[in-house]
Amino acid sequence: MRRKVTIQSIADFTGLSKFAVSRGLSGKSGVSPQTRELILRAAGQLGYFKDAQTAPVPSELMDIEARSWSGTILVLFPNVRYQNTDSLYWGPIFNGISLRLNQKGINILTLTEPTGDSMFSLLNPEAIMGIITVGSISTPVLLDIKRLGIPVVMVDHYDPSFYCDSIFTDNLSSMREIMSSVISKGYKSYQFLGNIRDAQSFYERYLGFRSSLEDHDIELKQIPSLMGPEIETFHDTFKAAILEHGLPEVFVCANDIFALFALETLRDMGMEIPENLVFTGFDNTHPQIPFLATVNVDKELLGKRAVDQILWRILNPATSYEKTLIQAEVMIRN
C-alpha cells in the first residue's frame, strides 16, 4: 500500500521546514513566491493532492483555459483624441480584449487616463485583478499604477520607467520585408514619414527602414521634420519639407494614416502627383490608398493575446517580464 503523503514528507523532499511547507500549501504569508512554487510542485509530484481530496488545486498550477475566472480587468486608454475604441486601429484591439474577457467570464472596465486626479482616487485596487493599457499611456499615470501593485500588460507601448509584460506586432521584421521588396525594384530615394516619438511601434518601423537602407548601401537622406510631424500640424510641416527638398521616389510611412495625410496635402497644394511616386503603409487601415506595400496587422489577436498574458501573469507573479511579438502579413502590390 502506498504511504500517505504528509507535510513532513514534503518537508523531507524539499529540505524545508514543516512550518514553511504548511504556510506554502495554505497560501499564507511567510514564504516567498519562489519557495511556495517549489512546495506546490513537490506536493504535486509526491501525490499530496490525491491524498488530500478536499484540498483545492493551487492556482499557480492550474491551466489558464481550465480555470474558472471571476473578477474585473481594467482596460486603460490614453487621453489622446485618435486613440480610442472608434479608431480603425485601436478599436479592433479593444474588440479582441473584450471578446477574450467575455469568453473567460471576466468583467471589463474601460477608463481614459486621468489628467488631474491620481489613479488612487479613481480605483479600488481590491476590485481590479489586472490592467491592460492600450496605446501610449503617460509616465505619471504609469507610476501611479505601479504603486497600486496590480499586474499590467501593455499593448503597443513601452516606457523605460515601468517594467511589465507587453504585446507588439513584429514591426522590425515586417518593415525590413517591405524594404527588401521595394529596394529590389530599383528605387534609390526614400523618406520615412511619421512621428517616431509617438509610439514605440513607429520607432521600431523606422529602425527597420534605416537598417534596410544601410544593408543595401543606400544613403539615408532623411528630412528630420518628416520624422516628427504632429497630427495637428502635419499639413504645414509636410508642405514646408516638400517645398524645400522636393519629392522622393518612395515615402515609407509609419502607418496608413500618414500616407493618407501626405496625399491629401499634396492635392491641397495643387501639386501634380507623379505617377512613379510610391507609398508604403502599415496596419492596413486604409485599403483604398494605392500602396506599393502595407502590413496587415491582426489587431484583434493583439487584444486577445494581451488578455492571455495578463491571466498568465496573475498566476505567475514572480517570473521575468515578457515581450510578445505577433507576426504580421506583409502585403505587396503591383
Structure description:
- The chain has 334 residues and is an alpha/beta fold.
- It folds into three domains: 55 residues, Orthogonal Bundle (434 Repressor (Amino-terminal Domain)), CATH 1.10.260; 124 residues, Response regulator (Rossmann fold), CATH 3.40.50; 126 residues, Rossmann fold, CATH 3.40.50.2300.
- It has twelve helices and eleven strands.
- 40% of the residues lie in helices and 15% in strands.
- The longest helix is centred in the last third of the chain and has 17 residues.
- It is elongated and about 85 Å long.
Descriptors for this entry?
434 Repressor (Amino-terminal Domain); alpha/beta; Rossmann fold; 11 strands; single chain; 334 residues; 6-stranded parallel beta sheet
